[in-house]
Write a structure and sequence with these properties.
Length: 160
């Protein structure tokens, strides 16, 4: 590769990987795992005994953290599997637009305007109704593998 070649990377992080490797035998229930390129929360792990061809196998049942779909995977327990970097950040709700986008106040005082209301109708309704009633609310945004989604909401107590 010559020095004259240019590289363009579309990335908002500091080059950090979206996943990290972890031995399948050490992944536990309520942990996270990547199955079919989707970040998932593990709901069930079962390990089979070592068979004729060597490896014990881990059977993972997991739920996609963004769309709620159930996914399964079987991995030899001694092999590495991908684990997503999952972060949760809390923002104060400023506005809910007509087209379903929310405006959030960041810790640095800026705004974050690129998130939609969650697909979960109950959570979405809770955010809209609370906003319409003039409540101050904190939204928890979960992000993993380049995706973000509102996953929880809470009222700020003591303000009217």
């Amino acid at each position: 590769m010559s020095d004259s070649e240019e590289h363009h990377f579309e990335s908002s992080d500091a080059g950090a990987s979206k996943t990290y490797p972890q031995q399948a035998g050490t992944v536990r229930k309520n942990g996270y795992i990547v199955i079919k390129n989707r970040p998932c929360k593990v709901v069930e792990v079962s390990t089979s005994k070592t068979g004729k061809h060597g490896h014990a196998k881990c059977h993972f049942v997991a739920i996609d953290i963004f769309n709620g779909k159930k996914l399964e995977d079987i991995v030899p327990s001694s092999h590495n599997c991908d684990i997503p970097h999952v972060t949760r950040v809390e923002y104060q709700l400023i506005d809910v637009s007509e087209d379903g986008f929310v405006s959030l106040l960041t810790e640095s005082g800026g705004t974050k305007d690129d998130l939609r209301l969650p697909a979960d109708d109950a959570l979405s309704a809770q955010i809209k109704n609370g906003f319409d009633e003039g409540k101050d609310m904190i939204l928890t945004v979960m992000s993993a593998m380049g995706e973000e989604q509102i996953c929880a909401v809470k009222d700020i107590q003591g303000k009217n």
